[in-house]
Amino acid sequence: MAKSRTLNRRDLLRASVGAATGMALAACAPVAAPEGAMEGDAPAAAPAEINWLGPFLPAYRFEWLQGPLMDMWQDTNSDITIVMEQATSWGDTEEKVLIRAAAGGGPDLVQTGETGAVTDFAARGLFTSLDPYMDADDDISVDLFYEAPMIAGQYEGVSYALPQDSITMVYFYNKAQFEEAGLSGPPATFDDIVAAAEALTALDGVDYGLQAVVSNWGHFASYLYANGGSFIDESCSEILFNDEIGVQTVSFLMDQVNAGIATPHGSDVSVQNGRASMVTTVPWIVGWTQNNAPEIYDVLGATTMPAGMVGSDVWGWAHYESILENSEAKDPAWTFLAWMLSEDIDLTYHENLNFLPGQPRTFAKPPFSEHWAWTVFAQQLEMTRPMPLCISWREINADILRPELEAAWIGEKTPQEALDSAAAKAAEKL
Amino acid sequence: MRASNLLTPRMRRNLEGYIFIGPWLIGFLAFILGPFAFSFVLALSEWSILEPPKFVGLGNFEKLLGEDLFWKSLRVTTIFTVVSVILRVSIALLLATLLNQGIRGHRFFQAGFYMPVMFSGVILGVLWAWMFPFDYGLINDLLRRAGIEGPRWLSTPPLALTSIIMMSMWRVGGMMVIFLAGLKDIPSELYEAAEIDEAGGISRFFSITVPMLTPIVLFNLVISMIQSFQVFGEVAVLTDGGPYNSTLVYLLYLYRQAFTYLHMGYGSALAWVLFIIIVSVTLILLKTSGRWVYYGGTRA
After folding, report:
1. Which CATH homologous superfamily contains domain A48-164+318-341?
2. Residue A262: phi, psi to the nearest 5?
3. What is the pLDDT of residue B123?
4. Which domains does chain B have, with CATH numbers?
5. Which DSSP letter does residue A143 get?
6. Between chains, do B135 and A207 touch, taking CB under 8 Å as contact?
7. From B50, B137, B259, residue closest to A268, measured CB to CB
8. Which residue in B has a C-alpha nearest to residue A104's C-alpha?
């Protein structure tokens, strides 16, 4: 007969410690890798698993990536499994990549969104060069993309990131208010902006003809670039934003604010709430008004950025896909990236996620070739220049230029004083 | 000989105790004390996460002394802390006193005042972002209906910080509940004796209520001072430090340096300076509390 024994406190303790130790050791054991995966740069045909830290998107749009897009991928590429991960912000993406890379790991493929992220990461050796992959690939090359967004994915002439889409700003305006003010069409020059803003501000129901966000980098950059100005020279050694064109650009915007025809700092008047008539902005306003303010969407028009005194271009950017240098599955990651950038998938991707395509060939197809706003973006993207590709640019932009532009906007400094002060501080950072 | 026989019963009991607190102890060492010590090493180094840290001695501390934004953020945070702590403690005490009168519906008001405490700073920032805009913000809209042209709350440097301080008043509920508990603890005989002596309401408040609540005032002062020095989320959402850095609070500056620009060593040095400031102010408050805090009718 088996002896029965009651567990005393010490036995319980021993058992607990033993179990805890066992579990801790089990947790520390390496995870068994799938056969054929993670063994050097596995050939694309071998079964592999890649980790994709995907775009920062609202959950309902991310679900499309996880569901239909992954189904399409698996239908033709069942030997490569994509493990998707979602970021809660573009900053979160960067933190995840950095921390995991520092620990010797990281995702295989990552989409970054913040301006300057590619430059910073490529300069730190975090991303692998995509040039050899493009050289060996008949379908994907730098010629597929708009020039400025593509250049912004390079560091010292090497492609470390490819544009998944494109971002730029065009001029949106309220057609109904333009008609009511007797204006024949959207502004084509800076002088037209002033004339239109004066006429529009005089309308009942319009608080300011022009929605201006002087200290917002993208907004200010649009006017600066349209006016022929630059932030910094290509070698990142000379500050240019405080030259005559830079001062003229800030003064132009401030003159409209001071004249009461452009939104002052802290205003919540906007084109989308119908209280302003013109704004330069990114494509999101189209989807936003369509979903939240259909009465504004119905009267919204778009045109390319009005020409300034010297030039008529604007900045171009994108969300970028990069393969990490740490990745042990670079080839499968490239196979997946090349598939996403292929003609049909690129079209499906942008149709479903509502981003601007990064490739002119996608823009040339419906629905992009037929949409009143996307056709304007396609035109604008032909006239873009990249934002500064300097390592310390993000710090200069956030800590130095933006506060000084705010100082000009709230009247604490003249445009010349603000930009000179920013230039002096920025020069120390370079 | 069995190992357990080498231990005295007292040692065995202690060993069992240590084993039971082991998980907590490991967590404390790994996630609190370890990072704490590591941040000190980092404060003496240059580190951008990817490259190995480079020892720079006191270089980061020297650097921060020469940075305009360090001084600016310290000044903004100090002003915020001094003004908001004084106001919050005073308002919380006032509300607790009012709610302690047993007015009708006091539980409803108690819950209402406490509710914002449950919101995170980010949510608070988003909510107030709808209140402050000067054209169609809720506050100015109400003022306009009353015939008053509201100010540009977040657009002028002194007013922007004032607006953030105003917003922080929304979270007095936590302190108010602690004061309420303290008020309930004051022996009613003291008030009865004062009534017999024909002391008025104000006299009773300053001669009985306030002195008896001084331990709670001290507690609330220390806690709210620590929280105020660490203000971050609501400012990041509402103004992101603007306009013209007038609301650039210390943690926002630290966060940008450490996590946006990857100056981890410099960020750690900033964190240690803040730690030293908070510890110093706490010690000063505790040291001076002997002069004004009463425990059970005697000074601390």
Report:
1. Periplasmic binding protein-like II (3.40.190.10)
2. -130, 150
3. 86
4. 3-43 (no CATH), 60-299 (1.10.3720.10)
5. G
6. yes
7. B137
8. B50
For residue A201, what are the CA distances in angstroms to A181, A209, A280, A296, B31?
9, 5, 17, 17, 58
- The segment(s) of chain A belonging to CATH 3.40.190.10 are 48-164+318-341, 169-315+390-429
Measuring CA to CA, which residue among B182, B234, B253, B247 is closest to residue B211?
A: B182
CATH code linked to domain A169-315+390-429: 3.40.190.10
DSSP state for residue A328 in the 8-state scheme: S
Tokens of B30: 């790994």
Tokens of A38: 């993670």
ipTM of the shown complex: 0.78
Taking an 8 Å cut-off on Cβ atoms, the answer to whether A394 and B48 are in contact is no
For residue A393, give how far its alpha carbon lies from the nearest alpha carbon of chain B (Å).
10
pLDDT per position in chain B (300 positions), as tens? Answer: 555 577 888 888 888 888 999 999 999 999 999 999 999 999 999 998 878 899 999 999 999 999 999 999 999 999 999 999 999 999 999 999 999 988 888 889 889 999 988 888 888 888 888 898 888 889 999 999 999 988 989 888 889 999 999 999 988 999 999 999 999 989 888 888 988 888 888 888 888 999 999 999 999 999 999 999 999 988 998 899 989 999 999 999 999 999 888 899 999 999 999 999 999 999 999 999 988 898 865 555
Relative to beta strand A170-174, strand A300-303 is antiparallel
User: 3-state class of A80 per DSSP?
Assistant: strand
What are the CA-CA distances from residue A324 to residues A34, A74, A218, A339 (Å)?
20, 23, 28, 18
Q: Does A128 touch chain B (CB under 8 A)?
A: no
Whether A99 and chain B come into contact, CB under 8 Å, resolves to: yes
pLDDT at B6: 77
Specify whether the backbone of B27 is left (phi greater than 0), alpha (psi in -120 to 50) or beta. alpha
